[in-house]
Write a structure and sequence with these properties.
heterodimer, A: 117 residues, four-stranded antiparallel β-sheet, 51% strand, globular, B: 114 residues, mainly beta
Amino acid sequence: GAVVSQHPSWVICKSGTSVKIECRSLDFQATTMFWYRQFPKQSLMLMATSNEGSKATYEQGVEKDKFLINHASLTLSTLTVTSAHPEDSSFYICSASGATSIDNEQFFGPGTRLTVL
Amino acid sequence: AQSVTQLGSHVSVSEGALVLLRCNYSSSVPPYLFWYVQYPNQGLQLLLKYTTGATLVKGINGFEAEFKKSETSFHLTKPSAHMSDAAEYFCAVSPNFGNEKLTFGTGTRLTIIP
């Protein structure tokens, strides 16, 4: 199946700093990418949906100015957590789907664990 | 609105025994249903999906699930557990397949006892 990578796999940062997480589709063109957040022992919660070249669509309750999403190319989307605080510590997972995906299946990255001190 | 409930955050079975992971859903429209597996430090991998047609769906690694509309259930089963099945399993629902939003359950961690 298609491969999606995320970088970094884990990151620790100080409160008030910004962190960028990359999501790449390695062997297909991702027309749509999704960003999820997962707290311990909880569901994956969709944060936003991004289409290449368009502004991301955020779910209700997700701060657009805090979680900046850019999908500038068909193989790369980035999530920037601005002015991070300890409550932003979580596991962030992206997924990608493309026009050539079978039945538009979503392919998931391995996730990025963010810890804000 | 849609929601998914996975009964049992942890399930342990002996190697060779039946695996049964429970999933119930709530959906205001006909659902598409999915099971994903997540191995440590890896992404979610699609095990199987139900869209339309046959209600018994077969997936990879010997897993299957049956869509029961009357019970709003989509339980995952495997006749004989293998050590390699130890992982986290997520049930998910969407109103349409693919680019539509997935709503996930809280996950079930499956442990295989040698």
